[in-house]
Amino acid sequence: MTKETKEYDLRILEAFGTYGPRNLARIARELRINAGSLRKRVKRRSFPEVFLNINVYHTNLGLRKCVVFADAAKGNEELLYKSMKIPDYWLYLSRCYGTYEGCLGIFTIPVNKETKFKQYLRELEKSGIANNMKSFWSTCFHTVNLTRNWFDVENKTWMFKWDGWVEEIRAKDKEPRELPLTLIDPKEYPQLADFMDVFILKELEKDATVSFTEIGKKAGVTKQDIKYHFEKHIIQHGLIETFQVISFPFEKAVSDFYFFTFWFDSEESMRRFAVSLLNKPFMRSIGKVFGENGLIVQLYLPRVEFREFVDRLSELCRLGLLKDYWYVIQDWRKIERETIPYKLFTKRNWLYDHDAYLKELGALEKAISS
Questions:
Q1: Among 6, 31, 161, 173, which is least packed, fewest CB within 10 Å?
Q2: Do 344 and 113 meet the contact criterion of CB atoms below 8 Å apart?
Q3: 43 φ, ψ (degrees, to nearest 5)
Q4: pLDDT at 175
């Protein structure tokens, strides 16, 4: 998607994020377009470099999010990447550079296995593969889908209104702005799914438009069975955080992905900052550091706008609205996503083989010394 982006396509992508890509009839009504044509466009994947999937609300599956940043020992960059894939519960993994020259990973760890996972990270650091690691437990990540905010319809290009963004954060609302549910510290991590629910979630993570018939064939059950589990379990138990519309609104050749951590003196400052990001075109996702006034944010920006963004962060620090921040730049060549590890879900419990993970890590460690 480039500066020649059509507003028509943007309206459709925005509606996908609002109503979900499975609800094409409603989208067609809301946008007053032909439903048949819209279905054909989705079926033919007529939107360039657009991926439609779901984000699972892992909290209601008894899973806790952990974000890990790791420095690689010189020469061990690839070994570090491999070692972070050993625990079966990684969801997102990327090489990165900047504050950390190594890897970043997002994991979902079964409740009561947090200590085991932290032990694995300590052993990884001791192994000599990594020099320095930092990890944060977080809430689920809130997806920020693309909207037409900051899009200049007349010129068919994006306008980066940085000064207006700062004023938006500074402005005192008449009523307090609330964080989305996904950015509020959970009080518990209930396990509300059965195996079929998890299987369906896995398929929707790959493609949110996949038919119930197709999922049923893979699972060996009927379309009606899948429909029942989706409506009565997945939806009613809140197992989906949101539908996610992955797109690239700016030229990929001159843009980068970044992961920022932001720290605040107060919950109010953090809330105002987070809410200001919920409709910005450069945003991807936001997670809150558990128990702290901190945010972990992924964004996608043209390089020519990056310094403008950092300048505004500096201004927010001077104004006392931001305490501190640091960031890493993601390496486009090495980014992977993984679905929920459904094969490890049995008898409504998650299997976590800590000893096997340590054994595999030990084998990698031997590769260094050999």
A1: 173
A2: no
A3: -60, -40
A4: 60
143 in Cβ contact with 244 (< 8 Å): yes
Residues 10 and 97 in one domain: no
Question: Is residue 152 located within the same domain as residue 79?
Answer: yes
**pLDDT confidence of residue 6:** 74
Specify whether the CB–CB gap between 232 and 202 falls below 8 A: no
- Calculated CA dihedral for residues 280, 282, 283, 289, nearest 10 degrees: -110
Last residue of a domain, one of 178, 212, 236: 236
Pairwise CA distance, residues 161 & 57, whole Å: 32
pLDDT tier for residue 160 given thresholds of 50, 70 and 90: very high
Strands 255-263 and 63-72: unpaired
Give CA–CA dist 176/146, Å, rounded: 25
Tokens of 268: 């109010």
Q: Is 268 in the same domain as 212?
A: no
Domain boundaries, position 104: 53-193+237-370
pLDDT given at position 2: 47
